[in-house]
Amino acid sequence: MLALKRFSALTMLAVTVSFTNGCAAQGTQVDQTPTRKPPVIGAANAQETASPNPGLADPALANKQAPEKFRVKFTTTKGDFVLEVVRAWSPNGADRFYNMVDIGYFNNTAIFRAIEGFMFQFGIHGDPAVNEVWSEANFKDDPDAGKSNLPGFITFAKTGAPNSRSTQLFINLGNNANLDSMGFTPFGQVIEGMEVIKKINTEYGENNPSKDIQGEFKTQGNAYILKEFPNLDLIKSVTLIEE
């Protein structure tokens, strides 16, 4: 699905939906030289199976409107952090995230792509059957609300195509304001535990560019990604904090 990498040009986002999308380094002038890639979506294949929560087996059932503001706790293998979502920043993004948390989508999911000083990316489910039914569950873009991809802000990954956000997200580790004009609209930010997100393992960087890492991950699940990259950090759970 999404492969997050820095772009140097808007046009590069529309070129591909795989791990090989090109992005320009932060702070450079816009050109067409691919370097790092922003969040991008690729194709998925898997089999359907029963799920504990009906929404995992049918995205159409995960359709609640999020509160105007809410908080969640991420429990990871590096510790806990708290994120606050403001629906007005990106209403469709906040609604999708709220429903994913509500159905337990993030339980035991791998942070499969993490680049020091840039971002870490997650949202491919550990169960191939869930990836199959969610593979086409795209939702509409949101207009720019003036929020930037600064450290600690969370954003959905996407391709260059309109309305291509789905299940993959990234949390910015650096100042990625160059992504703002590309349709990457943040919907929340880390308010507690910034020290935790800085500990997320970045040793694998872009993973292995010669392989279709995301495609294999989606069709084989956690068994594949943890064998390929045994030291990846995991999101154990994401839970709503009741006010």
Characterization of the model:
This protein has a 9-stranded antiparallel beta sheet with strand order 3-9-1-2-8-6-7-5-4. Helices cover about 20% and strands about 20% of the residues. The protein contains 7 helices and 9 strands, in the order H-H-E-E-H-E-E-E-H-E-E-E-H-H-H-E. A hairpin with a 2-residue loop joins strand 1 (about 70-75) and strand 2 (about 80-85). It has helices at about 10-15, 55, 90-100, 130-135, 195, 215-220, 220-230; strands at about 70-75, 80-85, 110, 115, 120, 155, 170, 190, 235-240. The longest helix has 12 residues, at about 90-100. It is an alpha+beta fold and about 240 residues long.
Low-confidence stretches: 1-35, 41-51
Largest sheet: number of strands, sense, barrel closure? 9 strands, antiparallel
Give the N-terminus to C-terminus distance in angstroms: 33 Å
The percent range for strand residues is 15-25%
Helix/strand/pairing category: alpha+beta
Shape: globular
The pLDDT mean sits at: 84
Q: Could you spell the SSE succession in H and E letters? A: HHEEHEEEHEEEHHHE
Specify the helix fraction band.
10-25%
The number of strands is: 9
Number of helices: 7
| Computed Rg | 16 Å
Strands of the widest sheet, in order across it, are: 3-9-1-2-8-6-7-5-4
